[in-house]
Amino acid sequence: MSEKFDVIVIGAGPAGYVAAIRAAQLGLKTACVDAFVGKDGKQALGGTCLNVGCIPSKALLDSSKQFHNLAHNLPAHGISVENAKVDLGTFIGRKDKIVKQFTGGIGQLFKANKVTAFFGKGKLLKGNNVEITGNDGSKQTISATNVILASGSVPIELPFAKFDNKYILDNAGALDINEVPKRLGVIGAGVIGLELGSVWRRLGSEVTVLEALPDFLGVADPDIAKIAFKEFTKLGLDIKLGAKLSKAEIKNNAVALTYEDKDGKHEITVDKLLVAVGRRAYTDGLLADDTGVKLDERGRIVVDEHNHTGVDGVWAIGDAVRGPMLAHKGSEEGVAVAEWIAGKAGHVNLDTVPWVIYTEPEIAWAGKTEKQLKEEGVPYKVGTFPFAAIGRAVAMNEAIGQVKVIAHADTDRLLGVHMVGPGVSELIAEAVVAMEFKGSAEDLARIVHAHPTLSEAVHEAALSVDKRAIHKGN
């Protein structure tokens, strides 16, 4: 007879492991099933985010930033270092150590909260049974009153540029290059392409980014994207827009690329190629045919506003369902579903989920863009403020970018806040709190902000909405 749980979570990424911990906190007997294997061959909890996504990429971004600062920022402070070098073994090893620390930390949290971890690939069967196939092929079945599907996402692979993680890399492969490539090609100017392209550019690679769409960062506010494009170009990223890759061939230990743009067909050769054209929901082998759980046209699990699949006791969260593929969005869905299962009031507001790109400068936003509001016919007013007029940013020698606040023209309610500049990954939280509490631009403008801080840019941008910024002309 199979072991019975109150909740089984399939997937131990940011959505799944958080759901499991919260369910256990609420007194529910909980299991979590995951098949991710770490470099040591053992189970590595944390999914893509902790193993080959958010955490390792931020580690490399920070390390590469330190190296970049030696040559480009520290001289302005009167500090000079000659012949600075990168030991790539230590560089990558630091990242691996951080990953191991956090994946092991989840294991400790599971033990502390009495979550039972199963190592293997989980498959939902009819009747809320879950079949677990171990990496050795062994099978066992467990069952639960509620099953939470948190299977995550995987990189989209191009049919003519298949991953081998030697020459043609996915996000995981780009985290473990054993020498700095002289020439790195990046397909896709999205979050992953820009972040990992920035890492290797700072270390000396010639980076060419091919983006098929005609607009740069179309999901971001156009004013913010324009500033970011200019700064990335200064960094040395060669970003080609409207450039569609049609061929990628491995020749003479390099990758020969053919792409087309408005000027015709072009060919370039790179030593490594990072393909970062997006991710898709990972539901391969997740569902038996008779479960009743449905997938949409994009392969995502269909859920209602409470993340319920319509099948009794079956829920789905994270990258495998609608909404932005962001770790923090998945985590909050995990908490909410656990609370709904326990009969409590869960809450996730997809309209205030913050987006962050951890490049240099950073990019962050929450809410609607000016373009979206125009298309929807919503009356609005805008306030902006540059970091060039912020004392703390100038003192840091990082006076790049701006904050843009968009409020409803009639009610003054905050509709969107968009930022590019130093530390905006942290500054965006203030905007999210204000928006979640239905705050107005006036609310942000009336709050006292410490001086000198970067947050003063948010304050002044909010004042600028009504043309009363103090430190710039309105």
Automatic annotation (TrEMBL):
It catalyses: N(6)-[(R)-dihydrolipoyl]-L-lysyl-[protein] + NAD(+) = N(6)-[(R)-lipoyl]-L-lysyl-[protein] + NADH + H(+). GO terms for molecular function: dihydrolipoyl dehydrogenase (NADH) activity; flavin adenine dinucleotide binding. Residues 5-334 form the FAD/NAD(P)-binding domain. Its main location: cytoplasm. It is found in: Cytoplasm. FAD binds at residues 58, 122, 319, 325-328. PROSITE patterns: PYRIDINE_REDOX_1. Its cofactor is FAD. Belongs to the class-I pyridine nucleotide-disulfide oxidoreductase family. This is Dihydrolipoyl dehydrogenase.
